[in-house]
Amino acid sequence: MTENATSTPLSQYSAEDLAAFLAEQQSAHAALVAAPSSLNLTRGKPSSAQLDLSNALLDGPDGFVTADGTDTRNYGGLTGITELREIFAHLLGVPTAQLIAGGNSSLAMMQSQLVNLLLHGGVDSPRPWAQEEKVTFICPVPGYDRHFALTASLGIDMVTVPMLDDGPDVDAIEALVKDDPSVKGMWLVPTYANPTGAVCTQEVAARLAAMPTAAPDFTIFWDNAYALHHLTADEAKSADIVSLCAASGHPNRAVVFASTSKITFAGAGVAFLASSQANVDLYVRHLGMSTIGPDKVNQLRHAQFFGDAQGVRDHMVKHAEILAPKFAAVQRILGDRLGAFDVATWSDPKGGYFVNLDVVDGTATRVVALAKAAGIALTPAGASFPHGDDPRDRNIRLAPSVPPLAEVEQAMEAVATCVLLAAAEKYSR
Fewer beta carbons within 10 angstroms: which end of the chain, N or C? Predict the structure, then answer.
């Protein structure tokens, strides 16, 4: 029996055919274990080839003084240098005055904003969040594990809603926020979401901006990490959530985050925060208690490296040329190996860093364990859910960005075998 010899779903195999298929997959997996690899598809990091695209940063900056006379080597400038803020304000669709350029980590800015809300409250808060009886965040799933870990670390409750092709399930969100004042905020990766690759449509974003909420200070943490990370010429345009909120009478509802972490150097880039002017002013007041200014030298070399917004876009085309063949390989191998058996579904993202793989219910943990035995490291099953708890045990996040193309192909062939074996084991019980 060959894997592509039939279009009959594996769940409908006869006992005899299923036993033969199971034996075939056990043999294939045993061969993988006998000659183990050392391959890793766990984290969505830039590859060395992608990082090399930005090596010219190390030659800069050319001089240290900005156009407005600021000596970037000195203290000051909490909001960051104007040259870089102008570039990314244009790319993110926000006014320059409402954008802060910070250090290297947007996650650090998210934590700061969340802690500020807990300790001090926001512009529209009747009291600090920590003084509320309960604080709950809405978490679209599958979603970003670090968002959920940060939320859990601060003792905030989490409630999940499905992440759909057009963004989070806005019907479910509207029902949650309408009458419950403890629901204070939500996470969202709106463009090429981690890990599904979904893009939040203008219509969904407009409903999130306008919906009635029992909490007057309900806050959308709009983590636009992949706004510029296109894989094809069909580039998704992020909804302008800041303007949508302002137009809906909730100007302080959304806080936008982004960074150059997967644009230049992942550990030495620049992070950004944008929101209403009132939110930005309050954030800067709190920021002044922890720093006298960001690394403006690094900001200046980034501004000079890019030149302008088009320079960023041109740079991202080079990233896509490296990444797109790897994502194409994932699609080809999953389709060739799994398509006939109805044992998995997967996303076909047009940008971002991940492919979302859903396997037969109850087998994701087994797939990850089988892959580990063969030397293939995968993100733990359930990592894309709060507390790592996927109630259906079916979700696996694939991150093909780091390994060379040949290793991505090798790893995906092994993953396909593991998915088939785990499914055959379940259906044989």
Answer: C
Would you say residue 1 has pLDDT above 50?
A: no
3-state secondary structure of 269: coil
How far from chain centre, in Å, is Cα 228?
A: 12
Q: What is the pLDDT of residue 17?
A: 97
Q: How far apart are the C-alpha atoms of 296 and 311, rounded to whole Å? A: 20
- How far from 341 is each of 10, 19, 21, 311, 334, CA to CA, in Å? 5, 15, 11, 45, 11
Whether the predicted pLDDT of 36 surpasses 90: no
- The Cα 295–Cα 102 span in angstroms is 8
Torsion of CA 312, 318, 322, 323, to 10 degrees: 30
Concatenate the DSSP letters of all residues of 2-51 into one string: -TTS--S-GGG--HHHHHHHHHHHHHHHHHHHHS---EE--S----HHHH
Residue 3 has pLDDT above 70, yes or no: no
Rounded CA separation 160/217 (Å): 20
Residues 419 and 343: beta-carbon distance below 8 Å: yes
Give the whole-angstrom CA distance, residue 373 versus residue 237.
Answer: 41
Position 4 scores a pLDDT of 45
Q: CB burial class (10 A; 0-12, 13-18, 19+) of residue 5? A: exposed
Q: How many CB atoms lie within 10 A of CB 131?
A: 12
Q: Whole-angstrom Cα distance, residue 423 to residue 429? A: 10
- What strands, in cross-sheet order, belong to the sheet with 99-101? 99-101, 271-274, 254-259, 219-223, 183-188, 136-141, 157-164, 167-168
Question: pLDDT per residue over 123-144, tens digit each?
Answer: 999 999 999 999 999 999 999 9
pLDDT(417) > 80: yes
Q: How far apart are CA 159 and CA 281, in angstroms?
A: 30
HSE-CB of 172 using CA atoms within 13 angstroms: 14
388 three-class SS: helix
Name the pTM for this structure.
0.96
Helical spans, DSSP H, in 295-404: 296-306, 309-338, 364-373
pLDDT for residue 256: 98
Domains of the chain, with CATH numbers?
10-50+314-428 (3.90.1150.10), 66-306 (3.40.640.10)
